[in-house]
Specification:
Layout: H1 2-13, H2 28-37, H3 39-52, H4 62-79, H5 87-103, H6 110-130, H7 137-161, H8 166-188
Length: about 190
């Protein structure tokens, strides 16, 4: 029993050595883990969910769907050998801008918000592809698309779980501010 208890933490942390691409076979699971493994991706995707929660009715789907579709397009551009300029800066800028929109409770019309989110998603998708390594693009893309959708859902759920009122607005604004600060740090790095 003592050996089992000592070896369990080692087994749980063994995957940390595989955090960088090229060390494992590319699969659905490596694609699924990529967005979750980067704070910049996590914050941007949670922010999209938080912003989506502000929309009414079916419009709530617009931002997450546009993000996932454009992210897959960005990965496709990478697969075709099309280079995007300043991918890491684009990702950092997405975190900063989305955080600011939440912090300052900016309500952009969908005609502006959807293309903006889609442009940001191109950078995220291109980065996912660039860090893919060798293997099945389709399985890897399915993994990062599903992980992204789940992160959008988590941001949406977080926004919807909070009760209506001034305190909930303050919590969301603080969350947006923290996301924006992180984006500024990523941009400065």
């Amino acid at each position: 029993m003592k050996r089992l208890l000592c070896s369990l933490p080692l087994a749980l942390f063994a995957g940390a050595a595989l955090a960088h691409p090229g060390h494992e076979s590319v699969s659905f699971f490596s694609g699924f883990g990529h967005p979750i493994g980067g704070l910049d991706h996590v914050l941007a995707m949670l922010a999209v969910g938080l912003l989506a929660a502000r929309q009414a009715g079916r419009a709530r789907w617009a931002l997450p769907v546009a993000f996932v579709a454009a992210m897959l397009a960005g990965a496709g551009l990478g697969a075709l050998g099309v280079a995007l300029p300043a991918v890491e800066s684009g990702i950092a800028l997405s975190v900063l801008v989305l955080g600011l929109l939440i912090a300052f409770v900016v309500a952009l019309p969908l005609a502006v918000a959807v293309p903006m989110v889609a442009v940001f998603a191109l950078f995220h998708g291109h980065a996912h592809f660039t860090e893919m390594g060798h293997g099945s693009m389709w399985l890897y893309a399915a993994g990062f698309a599903i992980a992204t959708a789940l992160l959008h859902g988590a941001g949406y759920a977080l926004a919807r779980v909070l009760p209506e009122g001034a305190a909930a607005v303050r919590i969301k604004r603080v969350a947006g501010g923290l996301i924006a600060v992180a984006g500024a740090v990523f941009l400065a790095a």
